[in-house]
Amino acid sequence: MQVAYYPGCTIKVSAQHHERAALAVLRALNIELCELPEWNCCGVLHSLTDDNLIRHMAPIRMFARLEEQGAHEMTTLCDMCFNTLAQANTWAKERPERIRAINSTSGGELDYDGRAQILHLLQLLRDRVGLAAIKARVRRPLRGLTIYPYYGCKLLRPSEVAMDDPETPRVLHDLMLALGATVAEGPLQTQCCGSYHVVDREQLVTNRVAATTDEARERGAEALVLSCPLCHYNFDSFQGSNHAALPIFYYTQLMGIAFGLEPEELGLDAHRVALLPVLLEHELVPEGVQVN
């Protein structure tokens, strides 16, 4: 399977380990991500201004680029990119005259017809690959490891672009079960981590991270699993010092461990909170493994 791939800025800068693990896992599943040759920033946030066409040009341009490659579907690893692209595409499709206006404003650069679709990689794994195929690829089940899935905002809200049930999501839960892990859950798994408030309201982020990690521990979790690079930054950086910090895994990294891939392929060293101790405790990586 070949899939068009939109990486976005964060994946190429601060979440390279997520991409590294994703590429390794997808190779194991015989899937090739074909990175779009000309991609730009998605715009980071969906514009709330209905008539600001220029603000929507960045995400719409990516759908036009996709169609130039002869494709109508692409995937991304970044929750923020997924949300921004999906909302902009929905906004444009609801009133086709918006697409025509953006195309005309581009000076002939764009010719988007509104048929394209953006999939988060979790959707691709769930809906195209299937959990049965993922489970069949497991070589080192995550037995004994209790994981708390954290979803945050951008996969689930607004409901018009949600890739799972906004109130009771299952995709990370089901994926962890397919990998052999035990799942611990709680109501805070869909709470916002504080997002970009880390810039000017660090205490808000610290409080939210502490509440969620405390809930995870109370329910027996030894680690968190998530998909969003911004959530990962906040959870990996702002856990309180009054107790041992929980390791924060990308789902791609846990898939790689369960698939029996080499730890060096999975970017396990690019975290503030060390991942190896909990993996060694459950004999999920060999003793003395080096990941640098």
UniProtKB/TrEMBL annotation:
Taxonomic source organism: Candidatus Viridilinea mediisalina
PANTHER family found in the cross-reference section: COB--COM HETERODISULFIDE REDUCTASE SUBUNIT B 1 (PTHR42947:SF1)
Keywords: Oxidoreductase
Pfam families tied to this protein: CCG
Protein name: Cysteine-rich domain-containing protein
Keyword Oxidoreductase: yes
Domain Cysteine-rich per the UniProt entry, residue ranges: 3-85, 150-235
GO MF annotation terms: oxidoreductase activity
Stored InterPro entries: Cys_rich_dom (IPR004017), HdrB/HdrD_reductase (IPR051278)
